[in-house]
């Protein structure tokens, strides 16, 4: 292993998406990631389907959802409610650098697997906790789910058609974006804590919460509110601070215009055959266009319906106007840029054959991401992990399996 983090071992006690997303990134960067799962059932997302990816002979299958967040990991199936299972985790912690968990607040304390208990075993341990609402505050004991947090954290209030339009109402994003962003923040926190440990030898508790992350990622919309006292409203695909920056109809579908400055707007007007708009005081500057969007947008829409999406994209790109089609996901993976960037990879699995995966977007020249392991079957590496890391014999492992401590 030659990845940037190949000197590190991560014990991943998390499940579903935010935690597994973080541990997958760490695994992609070279860390030895051990995914701890419940015997018999495993991570909840193993059953979240269809669709399922099935091996050629039909002897094994894994849900597409599980495949999305669990490559470059090994599966160790241990019953954490069993005292012997807890002992195994403590022995693994002594040989690990990072523990990642997303249990409810205090959920692991009853098993002696909380941060304070495990750092007594390994003072250099980085212990990362992901929760819905944080370790403190009035909501700290509530479970958190992405859809719920998108609603409570304000994202759904600014996503969807405006009130009064057909289909209006709050709308969630099409993927569990808050979970994914929380996984990214958790990864950053772990890397920061590891850097601190490299300098001081100290481990620490890293904590991130879905609600905190969602509030932080309101970005300019949060600042729009904090600077004006007025809560932003849903605007469909329009942008609150930039015009034109939304979707427009074409002769055969839709395209997106993302005009970021006045020079780009002047080029757009030239291509559309209306150069006078660029010097009209109502539209000449972005500030004026934002104030007068109700007058400008219908004019643009009347012009864009005159050609096909492909024709507009070709001519606008040549003129230096940012634009593009509204692709379906099959079109995304056929896009020549996506193909050139090798964003679809395949990994060999002993039971499933070649398993597809979406590539990690981080490009490192000296220590590139490697797709070493396909997402594992439940307990696929239990025996070898216990033998390799804590030296259990074959007889000891079989005894644990007979007692249903592991599978």
UniProtKB/TrEMBL annotation:
Keyword set includes S-adenosyl-L-methionine: no
The keyword Lipid metabolism appears for this protein: no
GO molecular function: CoA-transferase activity
UniProt keyword terms in alphabetical order: Transferase
Stretch forming the signal peptide: none
A Pfam cross-reference name: CoA_transf_3
UniProt xrefs under InterPro entries: CoA-transferase_III_domain, CoA-Trfase_fam_III, CoA-Trfase_III_dom3_sf, CoA-Trfase_III_dom_1_sf
Protein name: Crotonobetainyl-CoA:carnitine CoA-transferase CaiB
Organism per entry: Marinobacter antarcticus
Lineage: Bacteria, Pseudomonadati, Pseudomonadota, Gammaproteobacteria, Pseudomonadales
